[in-house]
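Inputs:
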Amino acid sequence: MGVPAVEMQGLERVYRSGRSTVAALAGVTMAVERGEFVAVMGPSGSGKSTLLNIIAGLERPSAGVLRVDGEDLAALDEAALARHRARRVGMVFQAFNLLPRYRVVENVALPLAFAGVEPAARHAKARALLERLGMAARAEHRTNELSGGELQRAAVARALVADPAILLADEPTGNLDSASGATLIGIFEELNAHGQTVLLVTHDAQIAAHAGRIVRMRDGRIAE
Amino acid sequence: MRWADLFAMSLGNYGRARLRSVLTTAGVAIGTALVVLLIALATGAEDNVRRSVFSIGDLRLVTVQPFQPGANGLSAVPRTITDEVVAQLRRIGHVESVFRQFDAPLGTIVEGGDDATIRPQGIEPNAPVDRGDLLAGRHLALGDRAVAVVPGNIARLIAPSVASAIGRRVTMRIGGAVKLGSTRIGGSGTPRDYGITVIGVFDEQASGTSVRIPLDDALAAGADNRGLTPDTIKQSTGYSGIAIEADDSTNVADIVRGVQELGFSSFSLKQVIEQIDQGFGVFRGILAGIGGVALLVAAIGIANTMVMSVLERTREIGIMKAVGASPRDIRALFLAEAAYVGAFGGIVGVALGIAGGQVIERIIRNLNPRTNPGPIFVVGPDLILAAFALAVVVALVAGFLPARRAMRMSALSALRYE
């Protein structure tokens, strides 16, 4: 068994603007076990992206307990949270978020650069991952020479480069055509088959259907 | 993050907005060049003044004058330098040697109908005034009597050439009327003639009227002139001055203090130099300040560039933070970029300052080909290093606030930034 990859208890996130407050998360309790492939579904504004951002350490919860890979994120300072983002989680965004100035292999290796791994080692790791994702030929290209599907595969490689406990994906197919989207989901399934824990946020039921478990959210709560 | 990665990445960032980076760097270069140029000018001026002071004499030398300390000009209160005083002077710490000097009354060298007015200086062998300036012959030595070391112009009155004056016997008339310029003035006492042999000729640049004779000869002549004995004249008139040599020029101040405590006025080039240094310190500070203003303007340019750079790269900062860049990494990236501006600007500026100084120096020398001062702009390794370091430090300071801004940016809002 061991500890779950992600564990949440009564997780809340409240945004204040002026006098009004909006609860993006209003008490979420759930766990993602190691090796699971979970899809979080819900309409926009349901808090699913906020949930992902909090797990990624990009945002802090207002209340509640969150443990990723057994570590309580509330106890981490900014520097430790940065290490958490570099090594413990891997994030794939809808907007790819690659750095256009760098070659693909450099983009993929970036989390390891911030983790202090030396260039030869991190580039070898990045190339191996790109090869696994069918991107070996694109390693030395700049990101503006890549198609959307290729960009997102590079982003997945970057998310995986530090062997994270969990792969987080926020609407990863949102900017892709259906063929590229299907390829990407195939990659997620294959990664999961090899033991990678995946937590995916989407509003697309077809995409979610590939996951082992679907969690539905509404108004900042788990709906079922 | 490793240092090598940090510097490689920020170098890439520096090179990205090339025109802007070049312009900002140019600002730093101009500021640095101005600092280098102005300080080099001040240093050159100081060196020139110091060199001319050094050419006057030895820095280890302290001259004791027969006055009370603090006095100058007409208000000087005389004090007699007796042999007891000399003994006390010898006991001051760091005193290496003490040379007594007695100036006999003014006199003339009587030769070939053309009298030359002289000031006979009675000195001891190896006295600081009687060193290393010979055109011919030798300096005074121990046991010498009835000899003289004369300036070149007087030697040429005596003999057709400086060298042929050596060994010539001439008459030195001490006391009585002397000629000063074209007027004859009544000297002191009755004139009395002494036969002397010229043993050395010194370069008259130091003095065209001083004639160096043995101390005992001068004392005897002074005593004769006033009808006294040498011993009484030592006691009543005392020595004209004492030259003290310190063991090291750094100890001159101690000796000066000791001389003043004994109640005598003193003079040392070392102290003159210290005053010159002080004055030039202020001068240099003012010039450096002017250069500093230029550097300040450059710093504002850097800050502006960095603010722009942070704004432009907001999204990139967000991405970097999202994939694991710590706040320190982000700050270091921008500080390193600012440091590149400072370092490149510093290198170019130092080179520009040196080159500019040489160009200006050449122009000045071409305009005044006859004057030949020492180097006008003096750039030492310390100035090069200091100017470079200053450029980098100024750049880092200017980059600090923008870098902090980048550091504090929320990763999430930076990711949403378009």
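The radius of gyration of chain B is 34 Å. Flag for discussion at group meeting.
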